Amino acid sequence: MPPPLRNAGRLGAGLVIATIAWVGSSGNRLGAENPAAAAAPAVPVVWTLDQVTSVGGLVPTVLGAPRVTEGEHAVHLNGVDDGLVLSVNPLAGLREFTIEILLEPEAGGRAEQRFFHVEDDAGSRVLLEIRMCSDGQWALDTFMLSGKSGLALLDRSKLHPAGRWYWVALRYDGRRMTHYVNGQQELEGRVDFAPMQAGRTSLGVRLNRISWFKGALGEVRLHGTALDAAALQ
């Protein structure tokens, strides 16, 4: 795995695509069958994904057979049925936050892939996703929903080659959400997002077990503040 990347370069303007609030494709609230969620861990949180039996001291529900390559601190997911589910919402109670994730998307996966999904018992959710193209390039897609206020950020012209490591980040400052790839701003927009309640988190798949991610996840960092761009990995 490469060392963390820091880039304090100029931020680019982006295209903002707003969406209407929605529910999962199953038509049901994802929290309906949740067991009692654990209390949110204190932020900042660093989850080093070098094993599947423990994530930050939490025991995940393991879906499929994700694997850790010897000598590489990352969990590899097959894009079909591999994932991890945690009975905790690390964003609970936060009015602002930053999510940073180290990942390596692989070519050949599904067009829509979710690699981070947190949702509370009231249905509020935050997702980080990719849209994979047939030529092996991908675009970052982020989504936030709170009550009837929701926003998706996606620009399919901002493409990145698969098969490389990237730091992606989603930042919310209490008014605006912004997402970044390797410290470079791509998109931003206004969304009203109330502090979340207890809930669950999934890695490598959406909580209702669709849109599986193909590639590797190395680390997840969750901060209780909206980090400046220069402080991002």
Alpha-carbon distance between the two ends: 14 Å
Q: Give a short account of the largest sheet.
A: 9 strands, antiparallel
Overall form: globular
Spans where pLDDT lies below 50 across 5 or more residues: 1-37
Q: State which percent range the strand residues make up.
A: 35-45%
Which value, in Å, is the CA radius of gyration? 16 Å
- Portion in helices: under 10%
Report on the architecture of this protein.
By secondary structure, the protein is mainly β. 0% of the residues lie in helices and 42% in strands. It has no helices and 17 strands. The chain has strands at 17-18, 45-48, 61-63, 67-68, 75-78, 83-86, 97-105, 112-120, 125-132, 137-146, 149-154, 160-161, 166-172, 176-181, 184-190, 199-203, 214-223. Strands 1, 3, 6, 8, 9, 10, 11, 12 and 16 form a nine-stranded antiparallel sheet that branches. A hairpin with a 6-residue loop joins strand 4 and strand 5 (75-78).
